[in-house]
Amino acid sequence: MFDGTANTVAVLVLLLEFGMLRSALLRAQVRLYAAQSFTLSVLAAVVAAGRGIPELYALAGLSFLLKVIVVPAVVYMLLRDASEEIAGSGALGVASEVLVSIAVAGFGFFAVGVLGVQSRVLPVAALSLSVAVVLVAFVLMILRRDVVSQAIGFFSLENGVSLASLVVAAGMPLILEVAFLFDLLVAVVVFGVLMRTHHRRSRSLSTESLDRLRG
């Protein structure tokens, strides 16, 4: 039952990641990230009940508070100040981006399978899917040309890492799990400052103008 739940949640997380990549509206990306984070909070509670690790209930609560409420609220506030709705154009068309993401996700999924990881308590499919989530998040960060999409890509990358940690090492000390959330909070502050500063100087959230800074 635990394996089935973990695999189902991992599939949902990956599908929501593809949804972020396809979405043309910035606020829709934020809502998809919140939904993705909510599924991970549910998985943390399921792991806590299934494996008898009560500390994970605290992690589920903290994850819900930070990722589902605080982070989307901060990004929404920045978007309200910027008054922009449309995500920046990608380096490729949407269809091409999706095809690249499918190829990258497939590579990540089957690469973990080639490693031959076997365990009675490890949902190997969920681990493979978490690697695919991380790689698709990298694609979102690389191909999209606006600060918000790149920030959401980074935040969802952390969700992929959290998914892997829950299925591989759910019994790690709570302080280490909370440290991951603290790193996310720092990233939110950094991206928030970046969004506000970039918009103030360029009057846009697009990062295309930054390409000219490359040597």
Automatic annotation (TrEMBL):
Location(s) in or outside the cell: Cell membrane
Q: Which organism is it from?
A: Tsukamurella soli
Keyword presence, Protease = no
Q: Which domain of life is it from?
A: Bacteria
Biological classification of the source: Bacteria, Bacillati, Actinomycetota, Actinomycetes, Mycobacteriales
Topology versus the membrane, per the UniProt entry? Multi-pass membrane protein
Q: InterPro entries recorded for this chain?
A: HyfE-like (IPR038730)
Q: Does the keyword Transmembrane apply?
A: yes
Which intervals of the chain form a coiled coil? none
Which segments cross the bilayer? 6-25, 56-79, 91-115, 121-143, 178-195
Q: Which key words are in the record?
A: Cell membrane, Membrane, Transmembrane, Transmembrane helix
Know the name of this protein?
A: Hydrogenase-4 component E
